[in-house]
Design a protein that fits this description.
This protein is mostly helical and about 210 residues long. The chain has eight helices and three strands. A three-stranded antiparallel sheet has the order 1-2-3. α3 runs parallel beside α6 and α4 packs parallel to α7.
Length: about 210
Amino acid sequence: MSNFKLFETAQIRSVWDEDANRWYFAIVDVVQVLTDSVNPTDYLKKLRKRDYQSKGYSPEWIEKRVRCIAIRDELNGEWQKRGVKEQREYAILTSEISKATFGMTPSEYRDLKELGKTGDNLRDHMSDLELIFTMLGEASTTEITRKHDAQGFGPNHSAARAGGKVAGNARRDLERKSGRKVATNQNYKQLPEAEVRKRIPKNQVKTGDTP
């Protein structure tokens, strides 16, 4: 395998298959990037137990999750370059994006999905649409941050709110047209992913969001 730089801050081992015309990635490396787990091998074993049919998350879901972390990594890189302090200030900006996108902070989102305060990664329990709107909010924030050359916490806080609002407006528009809520209380703790996917349309819940 050769190192293939998928993210700004992480290396994913990969190999190019000429016959299949596609890249293959080391799943353990991907899991480590997605979860920051100190034991990605053990995490992967637990992950595979969640869906007895596919022995893990579906390829489509994994593709979105990988893209989601790449977009997040890009945003983190912008914040780092622009003087935003890691940990507390990152958390505040992340919360602002989430609140503008979904009408909930990450903590409130975790409560909705009954994940508790620690342990489970919130994004591991998001549906396709939840991941897509998460990506839209963060990617929009990155673009606005660059456009306005935001420097320091204050301007980046405004950019985070604006980026989240872009995703929030798109989400509300979809909900009006589909008649379904994007954010749900479903998680993958008790049911395999494939089963959760089947049930989501029948179990949409209100998020307490306001237009």
